[in-house]
Amino acid sequence: MRAADSTSEDSDQPPGLGDDQVIDRVLAGDRDQYALLVGRYQKAAWSLAYGFVGNFEDAKELSQNAFVKAYQHLGRFRRQAKFSTWLYRIVANECKDFLRHRARQPRLVSCVPELGEEDDVIFEVADDAASPSQVAQHGELAKQLARAIQGLTGNQHRAFVLHHLSGLSLEDAARIMGCRIGTLKTHLHRACWQLRRRLASSEWARRIEKERLG
Amino acid sequence: MTPDRFEARLKRWLSAHPLKSPPPSQQSRYVDEVMTRIERLEAPVPARSWWRLPLALAASGGFACALLVMWIHASPRASLARIERDWQVLAEVDELDAVPAPSVEEELREVDQLMLAEAQPKASADAEAWIDQALDLLDQAGDDAVLQDEDPDDVLEELEALDRAEMSALPDPTSEGSSFVARRS
What we know:
A: 10 helices; B: mainly alpha
């Protein structure tokens, strides 16, 4: 599920009632109108958080925190960017704080599964045409890729999740990260270089090469 | 595999295997949970009455005063209780049986009165009477001194005469109890 795609899918707004109009009504005191914005972007925000933390429960909690914070600071939204971009930035900051806090916790007492350590992988590996053996192979490859993504450093990880996993455009990803597009591209390039180095001797790279040759 | 080619393969793999979607069963409650949290945040905080702080200050001040008064009154009572306890301990060891507390007080009072009486100067009439009495005694002493110049035999005779006179003045011993007779014998 891509965050960029979900904005249009979740849109159940009446025709002509854009985000800015809903925000105006909320700021005028009609609190229930905010449910429209929540319903519109809940899947995107949840998926974005899931890309960061790799756990649906934590991702739900973090994305809901982001919605509450967005409501509390809705008066400060200057509308220079889209509401979704502003919301995703809050989600990304929530996830950044969460990951930083989780990294400080001792691994022995941590009961939160980290990215790629869950029983199920974070990527969709099953499709209608795939056989059970192919699903298992894809699942193993997805775990390898997820562990490699988890090993990326802060900005590289954020850039990779925002652009490659959540499907946000370079411009939106750069706005969310608060940097220029060139800087974002540099983070993405370094992230891919790190993944290539980590996955060079893995089954994932051999599989990809086979698929290319095939 | 070159970096550009690796990135292209990676993008292709990710497009074929996107991130999992959130469970649909939980998506239905998502909006309600967020709105509940927002409503809870905006729930009006019960306003504090303006009189609570002065009332609390007055109550605490009164309590402090009560404690102070109790402390002041508790100290003498404690010492009195300690004295009474000491008296009881002394009474238990029979030290007070010989000198009970009331008699000691009376005795002390009498001593005080005596000391006050001695400290007061005698009246002039009493002094004159005392002087007269002293002179009489001196005169009698002078008579005795005169008697010393007499003959001792005469003196003995006079004393024997005095004894006889005194013995005759006594009642008859035979008419008294046997114990008196025995004592005389």
